[in-house]
Amino acid sequence: MKTILLVALLFVAASVAQADGEIALKGTFNRGKEADNKPLTAVLTPAGKDTWKIAYQAEWKGKMLTYNGALTGNIKDGTFTGTGTRDGKRTWVIEGKATGGKLTFDHFETTKGGKARTGSAKLE
């Protein structure tokens, strides 16, 4: 019984530590209406209550690209919004929903001042 309690306490402690630190996610993204499911990774770093700094990495046209931004909202079970930029030249916003810590969202390019949908993504 003591062993089960100890294992349960260690599991809870590990879960809390992860919730307070960086969160690494993997998934896929689609460009436009294409269902190409290209690899996508993201690291979320806490920056306040329901706010994270986020670094995305995705392969595009044979190159690994890094996007940096921010994410605000409930990433466990709720809605969230975010931003991203690449090389300070191109910008995006994201709008999505989280269910059980799995994120699904649409991404929109905003570089030219408008908001044009560029695709969708999933991270878990």
Q: How does this model look, in words?
A:
The chain is α+β, with helices and mostly antiparallel strands and 124 residues long. The protein has one helix at residues 2-20, and strands at 23-31, 38-48, 51-60, 63-73, 78-86, 90-99, 102-109, 116-123. An eight-stranded antiparallel beta barrel has the order 1-2-3-4-5-6-7-8. Strand 7 and strand 8 (116-123) form a beta hairpin. The longest helix has 19 residues, at 2-20. The model is unreliable at 1-18 (pLDDT under 50).
What is the helix fraction of residues, given as a range? 10-25%
Shape: globular
Strand order of the largest sheet: 1-2-3-4-5-6-7-8
Average pLDDT metric: 84
> Roughly how many Å is the radius of gyration?
17 Å
> Gap between N and C termini, in Å?
33 Å
| Low-confidence sequence ranges | 1-18
Strand content: over 45%
Extended strand count: 8
Number of helices: 1
Topology pattern, helix = H, strand = E? HEEEEEEEE
What would a concise description of this structure say?
With 124 residues, the protein is an alpha+beta fold. It is 15% helix and 61% strand.
Secondary-structure blueprint of this entry?
Blueprint: H1 2-20, E1 23-31, E2 38-48, E3 51-60, E4 63-73, E5 78-86, E6 90-99, E7 102-109, E8 116-123
Antiparallel strand pairs: 1-2, 1-8, 2-3, 3-4, 4-5, 5-6, 6-7, 7-8
